[in-house]
Amino acid sequence: MKKFVNFLKEYSIFAILVVLAVIFSMGNPAFLKPSNILTILRQSCIMGILGMGEMSLIVVGGLNLSMGACVALTTVLLAVFTVNMGLPWGVAILISVVINTVIGFLTGVIINKTKIIPMIGTLAISNLVSGVAYIICNGLPISGIPNSLKFFYQGSVGFMPMPIIIAAVVIIIMGIMFKFTYFGRQIFATGSNREAARLSGVNADKIFIAAYTICGFMCSIAGLLMLGRMGSGTANTANTVDMEVLSALVIGGVSMLGGEGKVTKAVGGFLLITMLTNGMTLNGVNEYVQKVVTGGVFLLSVVLDSYQHGTFTLMRHIQSPKKAIKEAETNG
């Protein structure tokens, strides 16, 4: 039973993707067309980039619910810099990246120093950042975005859309960092047991703050793509992206308890969330029903995460008979 459970934990996300593909293609054969597959991949890119930043936080023991607000702020800043101020698009991108990275760094410092709950702290920062975005654009979308900025989402290199290339580069770099670098191992060590990591010589505070800084940087890249997708700088965009990213990560096996997660399985979670929405839309499923299904999948994934880590009471049923008997004798 234990081997079977481990097998399901390792490969279940990919099996679910295959099953969903079969079901949706039976309802609408257009689902498996190359053009729609590219659409699914393109739609997953923003979530995937943000997910890499959020994953580093969850693994290290943090959380960020201000990503959507930072993405919206990025679209507004880029629009203001290029449309209203006439700055070159390269300079506008650089300034936006710096601003978001600093926001991520300051968020990490505040949460680390004050020891407030990350969810509460980042919700407050989300309202603050969102308010700044609304003030900058007066609550109105800023149009007239240069084609050079739209290219990052709407353009392509050969047959491959540009956002897929950008997301792939980000995911590969983050995968290498998590698996093969000393810094990546420190992130996992800090998330698994912060005090033990500190006693082992890891500067847990710096690692924690660095994870938030990375997340801020990812928000700027995702905001650049979102600007190209929307075609305007808007302060109310990406309102639901935080929960979508969390859903995808938990479905992809990134434990909310920290210290555990794989990039490959996380990517499967991003694809699953996007595939659900795309497949239900092609098959004519009502938008409100889609929200119910997505929410149910997120709830189920959280329950499974609890089950897999022994905090769910049904976990006792996968114990071996000998172990159960031994515990009964000890307690009895």
Description:
It is a single chain. This protein is mainly α. It is 76% helix and 1% strand. It has 14 helices and two strands. It has helices at 2-27, 34-60, 67-84, 89-114, 118-137, 147-154, 162-180, 182-192, 194-199, 204-230, 241-251, 263-282, 287-308, 321-331; strands at residues 156-157, 160-161. The protein has a two-stranded antiparallel sheet. A hairpin with a 2-residue loop joins β1 (156-157) and β2 (160-161). α2 (34-60) packs across α11 (241-251). The longest helix has 27 residues, at 34-60. It is globular. The two termini are 26 Å apart.
**Beta content:** under 5%
- The radius of gyration over CA amounts to 21 Å
Q: In order across it, which strands form the biggest sheet?
A: 1-2
- Give the helix level as a range of percent: over 70%
Overall body shape: globular
Give the helix/strand class: mainly alpha
How are helices and strands ordered from N to C?
HHHHHHEEHHHHHHHH
Task: Name the average pLDDT.
Answer: 87
Largest sheet: 2 strands, antiparallel
Q: Quick one: how many beta strands?
A: 2
Q: Please give the count of helices.
A: 14
* Ends apart, CA distance between termini: 26 Å
Indicate the low-confidence ranges by residue numbers. Answer: 312-332
Task: State the gist of this model.
With 332 residues, the chain is an all-alpha fold.
Task: Furnish the topology, listing elements before pairings.
Blueprint: H1 2-27, H2 34-60, H3 67-84, H4 89-114, H5 118-137, H6 147-154, E1 156-157, E2 160-161, H7 162-180, H8 182-192, H9 194-199, H10 204-230, H11 241-251, H12 263-282, H13 287-308, H14 321-331
Antiparallel strand pairs: 1-2
Helix pairs in contact: 1-12, 2-7, 2-8, 2-10, 2-11, 2-12, 3-4, 3-5, 3-10, 4-10, 6-10, 7-8, 8-10, 11-12, 11-13
